[in-house]
Design goal:
Elements lengths: L9 H6 L7 E4 L3 E5 L9 E5 L11 H22 L3 E5 L14 E7 L8
Antiparallel strand pairs: 1-2, 2-3, 3-5, 4-5
Bound molecules: guanosine-5'-monophosphate and zinc ion.
Guanosine-5'-monophosphate binds next to strand 2.
């Protein structure tokens, strides 16, 4: 299925197979892979295959697909890593701390006494 792409976007390059990732899951509209700079063990990203920067412009059905993939990865993390909890986080715009302008959801397992401060 065709989707919008941006040749200068790192996540578009990962989707296109032009840049490596540690892939966890892929379907027609989404991909999930490990974060290159994990905040905690098991820190992963669920990403739309299409280049939509933020929640206000992504089609609602694709946003639902990303949520379903994030849930799948969160379930796997809970089962495999036995964290004490898991955060799902999604940032929109530099003011919210978004550094890659291609919509993604962080799956962030939590552990006792970790250093994460949200
Ligand atoms: P944001 O700050 O936009 O919410 O999150 C972007 C995330 O993407 C960061 O946690 C960062 O470590 C991750 N990231 C940035 N570049 C790459 C990359 O090339 N590969 C992978 N796997 N993750 C990346
Ligand atoms: Zn992109």
């Amino acid at each position: 299925m065709s989707h919008p792409t941006d040749g200068s976007c790192i996540f578009c390059k990962i989707v296109a197979g032009q840049f490596p990732c540690f892939k966890l899951f892929e379907d027609e509209t989404t991909i999930a892979f490990m974060d290159i700079n994990p905040v905690n063990p098991g820190h992963a990203l669920a990403v739309a295959k299409g280049h939509w920067p933020t929640v206000d412009v992504i089609p609602t059905d694709v946003l639902g697909d990303v949520a379903r993939t994030a849930q799948r990865v969160a379930k796997a993390a809970l089962a495999a890593l036995e964290p004490t909890g898991v955060n799902l986080l999604q940032s929109n715009g530099p003011g919210a701390g978004q550094s890659v302008p291609h919509l993604h959801v962080h799956i962030l397992p939590r552990y006792p006494d970790d250093k994460v401060r949200l």
